[in-house]
Design brief:
Elements (H helix, E strand, L loop, with lengths): L4 E4 L3 H12 L4 E5 L12 E2 L1 H8 L3 H9 L10 E4 L6 E5 L17 E2 L2 H15 L2 E5 L1 E8 L8 E7 L4 E6 L1 E4 L6 H6 L3 E2 L6 E8 L3 H4 L6 E6 L2 E7 L5 E8 L11 H12 L7 E9 L3 E3 L3 E2 L2 E3 L5 E2 L6 H21 L6 H35 L9 H7 L7 H5 L39 E2 L5 E2 L8 E5 L4 H14 L3 E5 L11 H5 L6 E4 L5 E5 L8 H10 L5
Helix pairs in contact: 1-4, 1-8, 8-9, 9-10
Length: 550
């Protein structure tokens, strides 16, 4: 019998972890301390790479996400005003929020609100029949699972009704946010600056679209003596967020009653009588932190429990979901008995360094954005005008390198001596590559280009071969039959997978070659030409990745 995994936290990353594990047939118990889902929107953006992951949760999930996307015109640019109806003193093209297009990915990003996206995730989780979702269940102690030698994991749970019980399962996924209780239990330390800035986050309804007029954008920054912060459209139909920058001594929910929020919004818009219906108010503080370890025995830290970013670029939740995606296939392989625990340790090896780089760059971008308003009012110390600061911050609007360009080096990748192509700016630029450790490139297949290579990747390993490599398929059959490894093979050029002329160049193999793609869509191994050992090289590669369990 497959043991369940305990997921702590029912936000986007926790729900995503449950959905990913369900793909592998691994049941989960999701524990959420809140009594009910939050109606307060937080994050807005599921970027293109995240939406590629969502495609794996099912066509329905993907299309429901897409159905709540904002209309055209609201993903770019980022604008800077004194007031929304007043003077605009600059803008930044934010094409990254619109996605790179069908030459890079078959998926499209979504700009919406977290409350709607979570609702779709909850429906999908329940539909799997493998997710036990429990609201009002708070973890109060981690009893086992923190040491590598532990055979299982156990937590003590207290319900909102006062009942206490112990839950024992195969592992724990900590997706319980910035102030993660599980992280504190395992003794993980946060590295990096904390409490850098303080914000009041307000959700409200108001007809701001009529005042924005044709100056639409994804972020509307305002800077004047009575309002300093950013307005964020949620649906271009009256739902809005605003992030108000405040001093630490003003960072108190009680100091921000509805009328004060109304006054701030009116000052930001420049219209004294605009109708504002405040729905909820929250507070948050900016950290630029990474946990010193992501894996502690059978406990895996994900999302904000593992790392915390500034909001610039919308990379926090997306990095959390993409890191979770990296971890969950490894955890599933361990729980199902296909892999040694050492595979799970490669989550730490592969994701901590990229998370650190992304956090640091996000903070640099945030500093530049705040300098724009300060420069406009002569408050900065750089000596630059707002226009000059904006010119320095252009890269903030495009983050394809962060989304797609990460190159992994770990024991879960078998190098072939090649290196990814260089780019001018690894934050904003992306060059597809099938070098082991890179995201497997999207290539259209089929006579009418209706199938993406990404459609071939599922809950297991995938081997892609040319038409002259039958020995690779013999090895696939051996791995599946003799060693029970979840793996499938496809021949490019076979029925429905016609090469449109792009595949072999993009993947760097010949007609007799093969590539092994991991369940997270990253290249694990590659043989540009045919096998010299009847497919034995492929078997060795899988054996290495799984820690000798294949």
């Amino acid at each position: 019998m497959t043991h369940a995994v305990i997921v702590v936290g029912a936000g986007p990353v926790g729900l995503g972890a449950a959905l990913e594990l369900a793909r592998f047939g691994v049941p989960t118990v999701v524990l959420e301390a809140r009594d009910r889902p939050s109606g307060h929107p937080k994050t807005r953006n599921f970027n293109t790479r995240t939406m590629e992951i969502a495609r794996g949760w099912g066509t329905l999930v993907y299309h429901r996400f897409r159905s709540v996307d904002t209309p055209p015109g609201w993903k770019s640019p980022i604008r800077f005003f004194d007031t929304v109806t007043g003077r605009e003193f600059g803008s930044i093209d934010s094409r990254g929020f619109a996605g790179p297009g069908p030459s890079v990915s078959p998926a499209l990003p979504v700009m919406s609100s977290q409350d709607l996206l979570e609702s779709i995730q909850r429906d999908a989780a329940r539909a799997t029949g493998l997710v036990d979702l429990r609201f009002g269940h708070r973890v109060t102690h981690v009893e086992r699972g923190m040491a590598d030698a532990d055979a299982d994991a156990a937590v003590l749970v207290t319900t909102s009704g006062g009942e206490t019980y112990e839950l024992t399962d195969a592992a724990i996924v900590a997706a319980d946010g910035v102030d993660s209780f599980v992280r504190s239990c395992v003794g993980a330390e946060l590295e990096g600056p904390q409490n850098i800035h303080h914000f009041v986050n307000c959700y409200f309804h108001a007809p701001l679209e009529q005042h924005v007029a044709d100056r639409t954008g994804v972020l509307l920054y305002v800077a004047n003596p009575d309002a300093y912060g950013v307005l964020q459209p949620l649906d271009a139909a009256g739902r809005w967020l605003c992030q108000i920058t405040v001093r630490a001594d003003d960072w108190d929910r009680e100091r921000w009653p509805a009328q004060r929020v109304v006054d701030w919004v009116r000052a930001a818009v420049g219209v004294d009588d605009v109708e504002v219906d405040v729905r909820s108010v929250g507070t948050w503080r900016m950290n630029v932190t990474i946990a010193d370890r992501f894996v502690h025995g059978r406990v895996v830290l994900c999302g904000d429990a593992a790392h915390q970013f500034p909001p610039t670029g919308g990379l926090g939740v997306n990095t959390g979901l993409q890191g979770m995606h990296n971890a969950m296939w490894k955890l599933a392989m361990v729980v199902l008995g296909h892999a040694d625990h050492s595979l799970l340790a490669t989550y730490d090896d592969e994701r901590r360094a990229p998370a650190r780089r992304t956090a640091d760059q996000s903070y640099v971008n945030f500093q530049n954005v705040t300098r724009i308003g300060a420069a406009e009012y002569g408050l900065g110390d750089s000596g630059l005008t707002a226009a000059e600061v904006i010119a320095e911050t252009r890269r903030y609007g495009n983050h394809l390198g962060v989304e797609f360009g990460t190159h992994y080096t770990s024991d879960a990748v078998v190098p072939d001596g090649s290196s990814p192509p260089g780019v001018d700016d690894d934050y904003s630029d992306y060059q597809p590559s099938a070098v082991p450790g890179c995201r497997a490139p999207h290539v259209w297949l089929g006579r009418d280009r209706e199938v993406s290579t990404l459609d071939l990747f599922g809950a297991g390993f995938t081997v892609l071969t040319g038409p002259d490599g039958p020995e690779w398929h013999t090895a696939v059959a051996q791995l599946r039959a003799d060693r029970r490894v979840p793996v499938v093979g496809y021949t490019i050029g076979s029925v429905g997978l016609t090469d449109t002329g792009d595949f072999f160049g993009a993947y760097g193999i010949g007609a007799a070659g093969a590539v092994l793609v991991r369940p997270d869509g990253y290249i694990a191994w590659r043989s540009p030409e045919g096998s010299l050992r009847g497919g034995g090289e492929l078997i060795d590669a899988v054996d290495k990745i799984l820690g000798g369990r294949a």
